[in-house]
């Protein structure tokens, strides 16, 4: 069991924490991969797409006239390496958003997640998400889960664009400011120790999530309390 402590906000990671890593690295990646090129070509006038393509060219060292094929090759390389690159996340999020809306995708959560979110919300705790996936992708994910639309439980969504890198303390400072909360009143749940270290550096409370069968099951979480399920997390409002 985790130590019981009072918090006002619960901020949660998604991949490996609320949903299986394969849900992202296999299901969602496989859905987005063949659609990146067609999406770029079909939505070139969309300012979000145009900005993402420009950023891909810059980050990949491509000429500003590089075509879709070269841009997609760079995107696929980042996907293969599971790199959390902002323009990749932007484009994936737009594609996933359409996939969820069209019914091609359904978000699968661990069995303990929805009951925990609903119980915390009912108890007066306020919930937010901090994931490397784009805000658009996050919202679509929670709107189309196997348990129904859960977006009403979540007040804020943060990604690497509006918050910053997940392994930097400054990102957590930015989130706390946006929430209007003192760091000690926020708890962050993640399966990645480096993210918990960064949150703790800013004064947040932290809980490591080491789920059986997930990549971080045997990770060294150091000083952070660790659970295998959200059922074990004891949170109370101040």
State the gist of this model:
Helices cover 42% and strands 13% of the residues. The protein has 238 residues and is an alpha/beta fold.
What labels would you give this structure?
238 residues; alpha/beta; Rossmann fold; Transcription Termination Factor Rho, Rna-binding Domain, Chain A, Domain 1; 2 domains; 6-stranded parallel β-sheet; two-stranded parallel sheet; 9 helices; 42% helix; globular
Tell me about this structure.
This protein has helices spanning 21-32, 36-42, 47-60, 68-80, 86-101, 113-122, 135-143, 169-179, 193-201, and strands at 5-6, 9-12, 126-130, 154-158, 186-190, 205-209, 226-227, 235-236. With 238 residues, the chain is of the alpha/beta class. It folds into two domains: 5-19 and 107-236, Rossmann fold; 25-101, Transcription Termination Factor Rho, Rna-binding Domain, Chain A, Domain 1 (Orthogonal Bundle), CATH 1.10.720. α1 (21-32) crosses α5, α2 runs antiparallel to α4 (68-80) and α8 packs across α9 (193-201). The chain is globular. The protein starts with a strand and ends with a strand.
């Amino acid at each position: 069991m985790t130590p019981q402590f009072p918090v006002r906000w619960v901020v949660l990671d998604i991949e490996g924490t609320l949903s299986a890593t394969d849900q992202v690295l296999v299901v969602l990646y496989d859905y987005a991969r063949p659609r990146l090129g067609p999406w770029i070509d079909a939505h070139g006038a969309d300012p979000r797409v145009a900005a993402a393509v420009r950023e891909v060219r810059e980050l990949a060292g491509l000429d500003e006239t590089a075509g879709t094929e070269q841009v997609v090759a760079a995107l696929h390389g980042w996907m293969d390496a599971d790199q959390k690159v902002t323009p990749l996340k932007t484009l994936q999020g737009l594609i996933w958003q359409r996939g969820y809306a069209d019914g091609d995708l359904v978000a699968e959560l661990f069995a303990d997640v929805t009951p925990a979110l609903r119980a915390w919300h009912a108890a007066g705790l306020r919930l937010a998400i901090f994931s490397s996936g784009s805000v658009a992708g996050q919202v679509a994910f929670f709107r189309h889960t196997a348990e129904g639309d859960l977006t009403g439980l979540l007040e804020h969504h943060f990604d690497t664009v509006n918050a910053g890198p997940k392994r930097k303390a400054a990102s957590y400072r930015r989130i706390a400011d946006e929430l209007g909360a003192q760091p000690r009143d926020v708890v962050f749940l993640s399966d990645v120790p480096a993210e918990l270290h960064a949150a703790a550096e800013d004064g947040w409370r932290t809980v490591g999530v080491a789920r059986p069968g997930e990549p971080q099951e045997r990770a060294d979480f150091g000083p952070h309390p660790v659970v295998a399920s959200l059922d074990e997390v004891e949170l109370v409002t101040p």
